[in-house]
Amino acid sequence: MNENKLNRKEIKEFVKLIGRTMSGPKKETSVGYGHGQFRIIYYLSQNKKAHPNELAEFLHVGTGRIGNVLKELEETNIIKRITDIDDRRKTTVILTDKGKAFAKKRLDEAITIVNKIIGEFGHDEFMNYIEKTNKLMDFIEKIESEEVDKCSKSIKI
Question: Is the dihedral of CA 16, 18, 92, 77 positive or negative?
């Protein structure tokens, strides 16, 4: 493999990292979709379908926020929500053809940008950055989780 090219797994790691390091789901992207909306589109493009609770977990937000974001994406014909016929409380979310085309276009653009970054810094340095940043984010999340646990115990939730 060319040292200046990422494989699909490495690209997924990079996109995941960028999602973890950007500041929340309300950040606007250059294409008019919020950061959270774009991450949902990306998640669905990689997983084909999901339940709203999976998406909430992926974005680290509540299910109420996910419901609002899904409504916006459905209104623009990017996603479709399918209600389970046996249990109307269950919903599956999928990308529409328009959503799939949008996701492919944005992934292609991301690959172009990543390849430019790798051209500047080299594959090894780029992957080292991803590894170190993921390690840092994991550590920060661990600390935050420990602090929440401590607070919960001190006020007996």
Answer: negative
Could you give the angle at the alpha carbon of 115 between the alpha carbons of 99 and 130, nearest 5°? 90
pTM: 0.66
- What's the rounded Cα separation, in Å, for the pair 28 and 22? 11
Question: Model confidence over 37-49: pLDDT tens digits?
Answer: 888 999 999 999 9
What would the pLDDT profile of 11-30 be if each residue is shown by its tens digit? 777 777 766 665 444 444 44
Q: Which amino acid is at 138?
A: D
